[in-house]
Amino acid sequence: MGNFSISDLEQLSGIKAHTIRMWEQRYSLLRPVRTATNIRLYCDDDLRRLLNVATLCNRGRRISQVARLSDEELASAVIACSDDAHDHAAQVNALLAAMLGMDEPALSQLLEDSTQQLGFEKMMLHVAYPLLQRIGLMWLAGTMNLAQEHLLSHLLRQKLLAATDALPPIKLAGAPRWLLFLPEHELHELALLFMNYALRARGQHTLYLGQNMPIKELGSVCETYRPEALVTVLTTQPDRSRIGEFAEQLQQLCPAGQVVLYGNLARQEGLVLPPNFVAPPLMTDFLALITEKNLAPLAA
């Protein structure tokens, strides 16, 4: 389970460290253990409780009242008040707390509530992605439980697949064709699934090949499907030193009009890409790109 410092709690909850200390002293809100050098260390339960308390206090509840609630009462109160479509921080806090508690029903309900309030695309942009960024910070701090991350990823994947499946069918004739895949050994699929949803929601045709696709297999796919554009996400693969080589190989196998490389590996300093390649830094940049009506034609 997690082993958080007070600075970790400050970064993850948005509550200043001196406020956390004050709440501990006045209300016994958290019960950290101390190291031999007298450093406070907090567990998942402490972080989950702090996130729920922060959510309620940000909604106008008094800390003196909130601190008396049990963990179960806190969780129920957070779910009951997470109905403000504009309070994304509260929604993210509530989801993170539910994830830490391995509370799958609460996670699912909170995601569903946010979707109903915002619409699916805005839920992903304003709630799910900030939540994933928080989780990334926890990974960097070494305080992330793999099972917790898997629970959230699985639920988001389910939501993405269901939302995409619910879209009206796209007729191939006249619609721009996009080929989406992850390179060999790349398994981080959520961003690509969201891109697939966004494209289909805008009336564009996609061929989704998913995870772990050997690049050598793409040539025959491109000959058959003839996409106007390719999209891939480079999170851990290929090796950082081989991104330029990967791009050149992709260009030769699939001479599409445009290739989108998304992910941190595609944005490294000094990387030179072919002229028809783009590497949008943010998901909102990708969404702006796909609203354009005229894609470059398929190369001969």
Automatic annotation (TrEMBL):
Keyword Transmembrane carried by entry: no
SUPFAM superfamilies membership: Cobalamin (vitamin B12)-binding domain, Putative DNA-binding domain
Span of domain HTH merR-type: 3-72
Keywords: DNA-binding, Repressor, Transcription, Transcription regulation
Chain segments annotated as transmembrane: none
GO MF entry, a single one: cobalamin binding
PROSITE patterns, A to Z: HTH_MERR_2
Family annotation (SMART domains): HTH_MERR
Protein name: DNA-binding transcriptional regulator, MerR family
Biological source species: Hymenobacter arizonensis
Lineage, highest ranks first: Bacteria, Pseudomonadati, Bacteroidota, Cytophagia, Cytophagales
